[in-house]
Amino acid sequence: MRQSRLVQASLFVFLAAMLTGCGSHVPLEDLTISLILGVDLDEKNNLVISESSPVFNQDAKQNIESYQLKAETVRDSRKYFDALATGEVTAAKIQVLLIGKRVLEHEDWFPVLDTVYRNPTFSLNTRVVVVDGPVSDVMFYVPPDKPQMPLHLKEVIDKNIDRTRAVISTLQVLHRQMYESGMTPSLSVIKKEKDVEFTGVVLLDKKGKYVDTIDAQNSAFLLILRDEKKQELTLTIPMTSLGEGGGIFHKNQISFDVSRVKTDVKTSYNKGKFDFKYQIAMTVNVAERLFPAGRVNQKELEKMIEKELKNRLEDMVKKFQANKIDPIGLGIHARAYQYEQYKKVKPHWDEAFAESNIDVSVDVRIKSMGAVN
Predict the structure, then answer these.
(1) Residue 212: which H helix or E strand, with range?
(2) 278: left (phi over 0), alpha (psi -120 to 50) or beta
(3) 256 pairs with which residues across the strands?
(4) Hey, which residues does 98 pair with through a beta bridge?
(5) What pLDDT sits at residue 170?
(6) pLDDT 10s digits, 279-316
(7) Residue 58 φ then ψ, to 5°
(8) For residues 349 and 351, what is the distance between their CA atoms, to the nearest angstrom?
(9) Alpha helices, DSSP H only, in 205-252?
(10) Domain Spore germination GerAC-like C-terminal: where (predicted)?
(11) Binning pLDDT at 50, 70 and 90, where does residue 146 land?
């Protein structure tokens, strides 16, 4: 038995070596390995494609080379990049795909990415990120005292995903959402100010057209409704029941770490409308409280937090309904639990969603008030 396994292992190593030797080898210094691809429109709505690659030549003054040019299609741009770049351009290692917000203002933009999905070497785990402003502002920015821009961008997005602020938006996820009738797409968005920073989540309609933006402070509420809490979730909200903020120090604020959150949705159909009842249970640890402990006891504080969260979540849902977009995927729940009724409204789920009854209840349990009362 042992000898048979050794023979199999030897055969595997031999075949792997043969397969490796069959391909054409290009020295690393002769390659231009694109790590960022950008898609944007200029002021005259011409398609602008950009790419950024590391430089491996030790004699080069810069360790990143970036190019931007006009092209008819993404694939068409490659021949121009080949003419500009030092080595043979390859897209097999692209980490981030940047899409200018100007592109999303047109509902027919998604087919521009056809070659990305058709090319088998293009990773479907590539992050898709919207740029609020010209893509060139990000593409040609060289951050001081930070990693190269491709690595920096990936770390910025992944960090905010872990902290339950950014949505997971890869090429694979975007493709699924674009063709999912029961959900509308959403993408993380960045902006170049003094530095490149995550600013929130962009919401699109069923045709991929830009509708609205949720800022970084409120994007966590979208993820709570989608039951997508990651490693960390910290919320800071005012206790409006305590009155005004109390001057420049905002003395009605409380911050808490959410150690556990469970979101359940019960789906029914009554009187020609879908009914969705959210039941959200949270266990939290108070991390910061700017009002005196004697003003409320723990049970009262739990009820106050529940009220504030319920209001914020319901306001967000009403905003989605007013815009006829469903980034929380309630259409998927309707299809799963009320399929016969969903079939009737599938072609115009956006309207059915807007007319649905959606109720949110929140149950909060404070596990810890912190080390000091």
Answers:
(1) strand 210-215
(2) beta
(3) 235, 286
(4) 38, 129
(5) 94
(6) 999 999 999 888 777 778 889 999 999 999 999 999 99
(7) -70, -15
(8) 5
(9) 219-225
(10) 199-370
(11) confident
Q: Measure the CA–CA gap between 41 and 103, rounded to whole angstroms.
A: 6
13: phi then psi, degrees, rounded to nearest 5:
-60, -40
Place of tokens 């902006």: 191
Phi, psi of 35 (to 5 degrees): -110, -20
CA separation for the pair 333, 265 (Å, rounded): 8
Q: In terms of Cα–Cα distance, which of 258, 178, 273, 194 is closest to 220?
A: 258
Place of tokens 């030549």: 57
Residue 28 predicted with pLDDT over 80: no
Cβ contacts of 298 within 8 Å, gap of 6 or more: 366, 369
Q: Where are the domains of the chain?
A: 27-216, 226-373
Q: C-alpha distances in angstroms, 142 versus 49, 54, 73, 169, 194?
A: 19, 12, 27, 24, 11
Task: Please report, to the nearest 10 degrees, the dihedral formed by the alpha carbons of residues 247, 248, 253, 257 taken in order.
Answer: -170
Structure tokens at 143: 């951050």
Q: End-to-end CA distance of the chain: give it in Å, rounded.
A: 66
Residues in Cβ contact with 170 at an 8 Å cutoff, skipping those fewer than 6 apart? 124, 125, 126, 127, 128
Per DSSP, 13 falls in state H
Q: 44-57 pLDDT, tens per residue? A: 999 999 988 776 66
Residue 310 CA to residue 206 CA, distance in Å, equals: 27
The answer to whether 163 touches 230, Cβ cutoff 8 Å, is yes
Count of H helices and E strands in the chain?
Answer: 12, 14
Give Cα 234 distance to the centre of its chain: 18
Torsion of CA 68, 69, 71, 77, to 10 degrees: -60
Q: Are 25 and 81 in contact (CB under 8 A)?
A: no
Give the residue among 261, 256, 269, 357 at the shortest CA–CA distance from 314. Answer: 357
For 179, the token pair is 């063709």
**Can you tell me whether residue 243 is helix, strand or coil?**
coil
Alpha-carbon distance of 328 to 314, in angstroms, equals 13
Give residue 156's identity as a one-letter amino acid code: V
Q: Which overall architecture, per CATH, does domain 226-373 show?
A: 2-Layer Sandwich (3.30)
Yes or no: say if 72 and 47 are a contact pair by the CB < 8 Å rule.
Answer: yes
